[in-house]
Amino acid sequence: MSVLNFSYATIKDAKAFSDYVRKASSLMAEWHVEVVVRGTYRATMRGDEKAQHVAAVFRYPDMHTARRFYASDVYQKLIPLRDAACEMEIQFYEE
Predict the structure, then answer these.
(1) All domains of the chain, ordered by start, with CATH?
(2) Torsion, Cα of 18, 23, 68, 84 (10° steps)
(3) pLDDT tens, 24-55?
């Protein structure tokens, strides 16, 4: 069953974040991860206002593939760049 990855990034360093996105996007293409949507937060209609952030939704064929992606040596090497660039939440939902 496919899973959706909802990621929320509060940017700390815009240049580093751009570098992270470029490298992560390339890796995701190799893993055939589908980019469903990306967007920059603008306003809240209901609930608490949020800090400025970027949100994205990605589709993986299944949870096993998603776990393997995040555990891969190549992605593990991106984690220091990701953590320097932003505060990120990564959540998964079954479709």
Answers:
(1) 3-42+51-94 (3.30.70.100)
(2) -40
(3) 999 999 999 999 999 999 999 999 998 899 99
